[in-house]
Amino acid sequence: MDVKNGAGILFVGDVVGGIGRRTLLSLLPLLRERFEPTFVIVNGENVAGGIGITPKNADQLFDAGVDVITLGNHTYRHREIYPYLDEHERIIRPANFLRSQPGHGWCTVTRDGVRLGVVSLSGNLFMNAAKPAFPTADEALYALRDQVDHVLVDMHGEATSEKVGIGWYLDGRVTAVVGTHTHIPTADARVLPGGTAYITDVGMTGPRGGVIGVKREQAIESMATRMPVRFETSDDDPWLNGVLIRAADEPMRALSIEQLLEPAPRDVR
Ligand SMILES: [Fe+2]
Ligand SMILES: [Fe+2]
Q1: Which of 41, 70, 142, 249 is most buried (CB neighbours < 10 A)?
Q2: Ligand 2 centre and the CA of 147: distance in Å?
């Protein structure tokens, strides 16, 4: 069998706070055993106490065998990550940020003879990315041409319409387009007709008992009173939300995408 056949890509949605990290780290060995993924990619924009990422958090994820960390609108919350983003190849922030902002927007990783490109993009609707996502996707694919067999795009966006749009825009040109940022998984995982695996939002690896990561009583107070409230990360009812994509032998094509919604084991709760 060709080693490329069915290479698995495990993608884990926004890991939120210590509870999200512990959920991921405790479930990862089980998911590796069950699916034998060739690549593990994690959105890490919320790992540091719910917002941003520190070098220590990133090292911990890489030490656990994560191949690539993608980020989003919370990339620059912690200053100590700025040089780390420039120095480390396999942690990426949205490619449509300014060139002058720390870090880079795509990377490549090779495992078992399969070359995977990973691209981070931010939506433009209700988001603060400086450059448009669609032409930046073209730019990234042009830069990665001849270097990779497969490409996964993490489209970090608020608007479902924009994420569906980029899925269709890239259908047949990349292996997978996965949405992140809303922290709520969508029920539309499928392989598009051109062969690209797609989901509008993978969801969150963190406390389902909160409000997209925040303690629910604080979020409710803020929404109900319209007064400032200090937010803390919830640790109530942690789950892992992810997808498992099987890449085809043929470049830039997927065989399948399967949604993974896993409660954290008892010892993490
Ligand atoms: Fe997030
Ligand atoms: Fe985000």
Answers
A1: 70
A2: 29
* Helix 160-170 with 133-144: angle, nearest 10 deg: 30
Residue-wise pLDDT tens digits, 68-111: 999 999 999 999 999 999 999 999 999 999 999 999 999 999 99
Per-residue pLDDT reduced to its tens digit, 184-218: 999 999 999 999 999 999 999 999 999 999 999 99
Instruction: Name 188's Cβ contacts closer than 8 Å, sequence gap at least 6.
Output: 198, 199, 200
Please name which of 52, 42, 29 lies closest in space to residue 213, comparing C-alpha atoms: 52
Cβ atoms within 10 Å, residue 250:
14
| 182 CA distance to ligand 2 middle (Å) | 7
Ligand 1 ion: residues within 5 Å (CB):
14, 45-46
104 catalytic, yes or no?
Answer: no
d(CA 105, CA 139): 11
In whole angstroms, give the CA distance from residue 193 to residue 177. Answer: 13
Q: Tell which residue, 214, 263, 180, has the closest CA to residue 50.
A: 214
Q: How distant, in Å, are the alpha carbons of 86, 102, 115, 151 from that of 83?
A: 5, 7, 26, 26
pTM, rounded to two decimals: 0.97
